[in-house]
């Protein structure tokens, strides 16, 4: 009985000494990569060990951002302001490039102090499709006035008839800057519409 109690006491003392004994000290140089790091409750144990060489310390910090961020910055710099766009007036927009094909026939009307001139021109080839003017011989000798409302209606009717003879049934008119479609200009355009021409 005494032998059994002595063996139990010795095993208990050995267990206590094993628990109380400090954990072995591990150094970063002597520890093999296969050995596991002992668990600890200190905050420094949660930081992973990263091997750093002296060559990496000598290199200056890189100022190059990732490629994705560089692309975003370059895309932002390509957006030009209005002032920079005004410096390049030769660059046409998509509408300016395609408008001459979507609306090929352009009507021009000019009012002078003595006469009224109108013509339809193809924008792509600059070819004149139809022309009418109160300065023509057949109108200059027959019309009582070359600039009144009746002369405007006559010019509109002639432009419409000559355009249809050239197989042109759709015209476009672009008013000038600060120009209003009223008065004699409105009479010419309305007469052209009444004679079967569509404005696009």
From TrEMBL:
A Gene Ontology term for the protein's cellular component: ribonucleoprotein complex
InterPro entries, A to Z: Ribosomal_L18, Ribosomal_uL18_bac/plant/anim
Keywords, sorted A to Z: Ribonucleoprotein, Ribosomal protein
GO molecular function per UniProt: 5S rRNA binding; mRNA binding; structural constituent of ribosome
Example GO BP: translation
Pfam name, any one: Ribosomal_L18p
Superkingdom per UniProt: Eukaryota
Transmembrane parts of this sequence: none
Family statement drawn from the similarity comment of this UniProt entry: Belongs to the universal ribosomal protein uL18 family.
Protein name in UniProt: (wild Malaysian banana) hypothetical protein
Species of the source: Musa acuminata subsp. malaccensis
């Amino acid at each position: 009985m005494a032998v059994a109690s002595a063996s139990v006491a010795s095993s208990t003392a050995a267990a206590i000494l094993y628990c109380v004994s400090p954990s072995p000290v591990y150094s970063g140089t002597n520890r093999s990569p296969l050995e596991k790091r002992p668990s600890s409750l200190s905050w420094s144990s949660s930081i992973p060990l990263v091997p750093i060489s002296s060559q990496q310390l000598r290199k200056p910090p890189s100022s190059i951002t990732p490629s994705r961020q560089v692309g975003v910055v370059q895309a932002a710099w390509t957006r030009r302001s209005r002032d920079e766009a005004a410096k390049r007036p030769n660059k046409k927009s998509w509408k300016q490039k395609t408008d001459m094909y979507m609306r090929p026939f352009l009507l021009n009307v000019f009012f002078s102090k003595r006469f009224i001139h109108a013509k339809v021109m193809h924008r792509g080839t600059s070819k004149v499709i139809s022309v009418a003017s109160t300065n023509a011989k057949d109108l200059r000798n027959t019309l009582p006035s070359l600039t009144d409302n009746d002369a405007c209606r006559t010019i509109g009717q002639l432009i419409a008839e000559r355009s249809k003879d050239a197989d042109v049934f759709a015209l476009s008119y672009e008013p000038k800057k600060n120009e209003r479609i009223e008065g004699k200009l409105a009479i010419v355009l309305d007469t052209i519409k009444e004679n079967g021409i569509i404005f696009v």
